[in-house]
Design a protein that fits this description.
It is a single chain. The protein has 108 residues and is α+β, with helices and mostly antiparallel strands. It folds into two domains: 66 residues, 2-Layer Sandwich (Phosphorylase Kinase, domain 1); 42 residues, no CATH class. Helices cover 40% and strands 23% of the residues. It contains three helices and four strands. Strands 1-2-4-3 form a four-stranded antiparallel beta sheet, covered by helices on one side. β1 and β2 form a beta hairpin. It is globular, with a radius of gyration of 16 Å. It starts with a strand and ends in an 8-residue tail after the last helix.
Length: 108
Amino acid sequence: MWKCKDANTSADVAVKIIKPPKNDKRKKWIRNEITLMQKCNHDNIPRFIASLTVANNVWLAMEYVDGMDLLHLMDCITFRRSQIAYVCAEVLSALSYLHSNGIIQLTH
């Protein structure tokens, strides 16, 4: 994952570079990932901006989210119960959105 600048807006964007797919199954997976990313519109899911192919690599541009991932943050601080509840509610909100839009299936 790379942090880049949008040439038009000067906004920070995240760019993921995917190596050339070696088979049709992998190509289909990449196309499906792009299609799903384009459909997502939730505050807790980084927004898809664009995709393009450069030298057979697929480049995905997404909204840049500043900060650190939750696992790293958990190594740095001890969360209070209220903070844990907030993080859980935000993650569950995103999962609920993905489930209600048929992007993931939650099983019991």
